[in-house]
């Protein structure tokens, strides 16, 4: 059984309802890597094999993260606001080189962000549940997160949503950051306490944020994040490129051949 990533595009619930009623369904492949919705656990409980295309969008998402880090340092959002008002703005522009970046989640996306950030003269420290020793940067266990937060200029969230990562950045953690630090979230909206983030952005404790994911998507039109001059919003699109789609399709095609041959599948969800 195969589906492109319909989840979240309006057709997902209908597709999943049909799948739950299909007694002979055996396999579902998702183009996305995020399988945190409870429906996937239910499908596995019913005996379906669930696979995904993790890693296929790591490169464009990492490019988006670096773009946003540079954009926030270069005051791209305030300058765009000034341009729309025909104002010749005089803003302070900090360096990208010499900053310290903390990355929560050192999977394929976080690792690629770390690799690219080093080329910009950024010092990178990652955190993950269990460091493997082969990460492209200094990596600490998640238990040291509170030790890391006061050190970083840019906090990047690339972790999957799990019971351990849900709300990992709340009011307490935001207060631990260096005053004026930047935050980038390309993981899941639920990694961050959105209300606490809005307050931190309003106070200046968080100087700027670039957000590609939100607790509710699409982001409600009345949400205060839309109009904040220090926030860059993208519509959960940081990994949506033709090459990423092709890599995801290649994973499915390879798995289809493996399924026919009775071989183990790639990227099977536990």
3D architecture notes:
The protein is an alpha/beta fold and about 270 residues long. The protein has two domains: about 70 residues, no CATH class; about 180 residues, Rossmann fold (3-Layer(aba) Sandwich), CATH 3.40.50.720. About 35% of the residues lie in helices and about 15% in strands. The protein is built from nine helices and nine strands. The chain has a seven-stranded parallel β-sheet with strand order 5-4-3-6-7-8-9. A two-stranded parallel ribbon has the order 1-2. Helix 3 crosses helix 5. The radius of gyration is 20 Å and the shape is globular.
CATH topology of the largest domain: Rossmann fold
Estimate the global geometry from the Cα principal axes: globular
- As residue ranges, the low-confidence spans are 1-8
Report the average pLDDT across residues: 93
Rg on CA atoms, Å: 20 Å
What count of structural domains?
A: 2
SSE pattern, N- to C-terminal: HEHEHHEHEEHEHEHEEH
Largest sheet: 7 strands, parallel
Q: For the terminal residues, how far apart are their CA atoms?
A: 17 Å
CATH C-level label of the largest domain: Alpha Beta
Helix content: 25-40%
Structural class: alpha/beta
Count the E strands: 9
């Amino acid at each position: 059984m195969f589906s492109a990533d319909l989840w979240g595009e309006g057709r997902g619930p209908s597709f999943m309802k049909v799948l739950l009623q299909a007694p002979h369904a055996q396999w579902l492949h998702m183009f996305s890597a995020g399988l945190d919705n409870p429906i996937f656990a239910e499908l596995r409980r019913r005996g379906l094999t669930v696979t995904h295309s993790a890693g296929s969008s790591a490169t464009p998402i990492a490019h988006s993260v670096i773009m946003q880090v540079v954009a926030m340092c270069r005051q791209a959002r305030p300058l765009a606001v000034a341009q729309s008002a025909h104002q010749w703005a005089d803003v302070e522009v900090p360096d990208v080189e010499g900053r310290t970046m903390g990355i929560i989640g050192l999977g394929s996306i976080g690792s690629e962000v770390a690799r690219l950030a080093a080329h910009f003269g950024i010092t990178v420290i990652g955190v993950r549940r269990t460091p493997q020793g082969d990460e492209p940067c200094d990596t600490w266990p998640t238990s040291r997160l509170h030790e890391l937060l006061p050190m970083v200029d840019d906090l990047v969230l690339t972790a999957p949503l799990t019971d351990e990562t849900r709300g990992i950045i709340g009011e307490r953690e935001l207060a631990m950051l260096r005053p004026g630090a930047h935050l980038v979230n390309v993981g899941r909206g639920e990694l961050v306490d959105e209300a606490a983030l809005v307050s931190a952005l309003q106070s200046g404790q968080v100087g700027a944020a670039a957000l590609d994911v939100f607790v509710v998507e699409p982001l409600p039109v009345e949400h205060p994040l839309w109009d904040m001059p220090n926030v860059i919003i993208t519509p959960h699109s940081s990994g949506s490129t033709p090459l990423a789609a092709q890599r995801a399709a290649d994973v499915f095609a390879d798995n289809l051949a493996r399924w026919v041959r009775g071989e183990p599948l790639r990227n099977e969800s536990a």
